[in-house]
Amino acid sequence: MRNFGKYVLSAVTGGVIGAAATWLWSNRPGTARLMGSWGNYPKVAAQLHTFQTIAELRQILKNVHSAIPRGNGRSYGDSALAPHMISSLNYNKFLSFDTQAGIIHCQAGVLLSEILEVTVAKGWFLPVTPGTKLITVGGAIASDVHGKSQHKAGNFSDHLVSMELMLADGSIVTCSPEQNNELFWTTCGGMGLTGVILSATMHLIPIETAYIRQESLRADNLDHLMDLFEESESWMYSVAWIDCLTKGNGMGRGYIMRGEHATLTDLAGDSRRKYPLEPRWKPKLIVPFDFPEFFLNSFIIKAFNFVLYHKNPKKVVKSVIDYDEFFYPLDVIYQWNRIYGPRGFTQYQFILPTENSRAGMKAIMQKITDSNMGSFLAVLKLYGPQRGYLPFAMAGYSLALDFPIRDGLFDFLDELDKLVLSYGGRLYLTKDARMSAAMFKETYPQLETFLQNLQQINPNDKFRSRQSDRVGLTK
Amino acid sequence: MGHVLILGATSDMAQALAYRYAQEGYQVTLAARQIEPLTALVSDLQIRYQAKVAALAFEATDYASHATFYANLATPPNVVICVFGYLGEQAKAQEDFAESEKIIATNYVGAVSILNIVANDFESRQSGCIIGISSVAGDRGRQSNYIYGSAKAGFTAYLSGLRNRLAKSQVQVLTVKPGFVRTRMTEKLKLPPFITATPTQVANQIYRAHQAKRDVLYTLWMWQFIMLIIRHIPEFIFKRLSL
Ligand SMILES: Cc1cc2nc3c(=O)[nH]c(=O)nc-3n(C[C@H](O)[C@H](O)[C@H](O)COP(=O)(O)OP(=O)(O)OC[C@H]3O[C@@H](n4cnc5c(N)ncnc54)[C@H](O)[C@@H]3O)c2cc1C
Ligand SMILES: NC(=O)c1ccc[n+]([C@@H]2O[C@H](COP(=O)([O-])OP(=O)(O)OC[C@H]3O[C@@H](n4cnc5c(N)ncnc54)[C@H](OP(=O)(O)O)[C@@H]3O)[C@@H](O)[C@H]2O)c1
Hints:
The complex is a heterodimer of chains A (475) and B (243).
Chain A: H1 2-25, E1 33-35, E2 44-50, H2 54-63, E3 68-70, E4 84-87, E5 94-98, E6 103-107, H3 112-119, E7 124-125, H4 137-142, H5 150-153, E8 160-166, E9 172-175, H6 181-187, E10 196-203, E11 205-206, E12 211-219, H7 222-231, E13 237-242, E14 254-261, E15 285-286, H8 298-310, E16 316-322, H9 323-327, E17 333-334, E18 345-353, H10 354-371, E19 378-383, E20 396-404, H11 409-422, E21 426-427, H12 437-443, H13 447-457, H14 466-471
Helix pairs in contact in A: 10-11
Chain B: E1 3-7, H1 12-23, E2 27-32, H2 39-49, E3 53-57, H3 66-71, E4 79-82, H4 90-95, H5 97-125, E5 129-133, H6 146-166, E6 172-178, E7 180-181, E8 196-197, H7 199-211, E9 216-219, H8 222-232, H9 235-238
Parallel strand pairs in B: 1-2, 1-4, 2-3, 4-5, 5-6, 6-9, 7-8
Bound molecules: flavin-adenine dinucleotide and NADP nicotinamide-adenine-dinucleotide phosphate.
């Protein structure tokens, strides 16, 4: 009788486990699944390959016909999308950190957030940081990213000592501005097309505190905002938030935030001075699911912008805030991109040369406000020149806007492209999901040199993405 | 501060354990037959956690070297985790005794050799914790891997006897029986995700079981239940199953 009970028990549980296992079996890793990047548009049936050692990476390169390196998928469009993607996320070890000289050497999958966790407490900060710290070192180099300090500190790659790269044939090359410099500058901003970045050594900048002394100034319209930018050129960091929905005289009203690393003196009389390099921990908010599409109707966007604008009635507001709050306000809301719903969104970031900035920005903003296509965020920034062969930056102004994907959007963006082109501007590849090859060709003046170099480095298009195929960087 | 010695440190599970213990403030000694692949792990642990970390050469089947290896440690450890193991190939082991021998030597004889030495040290110091990574495969022999399974069964019995011996000396002995774990050992196998752990999950469970002074740990928890059933299937049925 006791035995009989056992049979029943085992038969039942065996059945349950078997069913669960079969059901889950179909979800096993290693098979292709639909993947997107930050904008959730486009999505590509892709297989993700990971590696922890050089030997494993070589094996992957042998096994696939073509692939694209991928970091943390924080590019918005299809820069890091292809049927085979080689993720660096498991290749993420720190190799050395010279706390005296402020030089750090790490593998390419290390996130900028992890660097900050290690270096800030020792009095060192990233020389350049974009608006999210959840990107890899490899991604930062391949898109040659910039931050609020672009006008003064340049781009991420300007601070590299050297890097190591695995080429299509599996060989490993070290390059720097001195050694193999053509390879170096083709890789910086080269969108992963030259090979897999393995590790990088970079300079950090010294800080006395983990805080930023910030001033935020209100501007009544676009001209006013640009005046404030030019007035703030000597500040290390500057960026402006723009309300793109207001028409007429107030068009382009917004805020400029400018900042400097706070010194100990800036923290005088402040309780935070006791642990100047250890800002307090803050909780995270999470957007747990895709928002339904109606959420983003233009009424809500208007209300949102209005609240932000009137939150702050004074002309200048000074504060000392921790670096997370200053640089990464959006990282606090984990996966905020899901707020745009299942169809996803795209970011349209363009830059115009200084001489055309005022007229051009106004014309383009006019078109956007008239369109009612709605943009949740619009960010304006003053830039200086950039090195490399596919630089996005130039002396001028850039505006970045988010657009939820909807019918008619791409036709509208094609119209905007024409305007950007006519004012001598260009679009940022790492945000792009839809620019035409013709637009790209006309707006990236050193494209020919880049392609000639690429022909030597990646002759058979071993490294290619959906984007590189689309804009004609690969065939 | 604690000092953990991890034997078989190039494995994914060992690496996850090294992160967890370093994060908790332990000094970490990594022992593996090749130490060159550990260079990046050593620097990473030092930089991320300011941990004291060293890598040493250790060959599990070179029994004669074990006493010297242990005596040469700069400071005596108070936690020793025996992670090394060798799955081998069942079919090959049936044909070729050398393969069987390697499986038994690595999973059982090597572990006994080094842990005998550790046990005597901990017994005389009246403290310490020995963690042995055995396997659910040791709970019942199955045709698909009984050479490996029997070596792990031997190891499980060894650990249980050791625990019995050392209980009065305040030495903890923790037997870990992982189910499926997604590591290099299993990368070619198709494992059902629901009952497959990541090395990090296993490491976290081991750390907690160590702190809670537990004796036996199944990772993931479902495996305790699954093995309960498997152990109780009557032999006349079990022998007909293709497991
Ligand atoms: C909220 C938010 C704010 C942002 N703000 C800014 C900003 O202020 N300034 C700015 O410049 N960018 C900004 N970005 C864009 C982001 O910094 C870049 O897209 C960055 O490249 C993403 O890095 P990743 O590690 O996620 O790389 P992915 O998105 O995975 O890849 C980006 C590109 O890098 C290549 N790549 C990645 N790893 C490697 C490697 N190991 N070797 C070779 N190529 C590689 C890929 O092939 C791809 O072309 C922002 C993004 C978000 C989501
Ligand atoms: N993965 C699973 O599903 C699973 C399930 C149950 C139990 N386990 C057990 O968990 C432990 C860790 O396994 P894992 O999955 O992480 O597998 P793994 O990556 O294959 O690890 C095996 C480790 O043992 C080392 N090793 C093998 N022979 C050795 C020897 N003679 N001397 C010294 N070191 C030796 C290997 O070193 P090298 O790098 O030099 O080869 C490697 O570090 C093993 O004991 C395994 O039996 C694993």
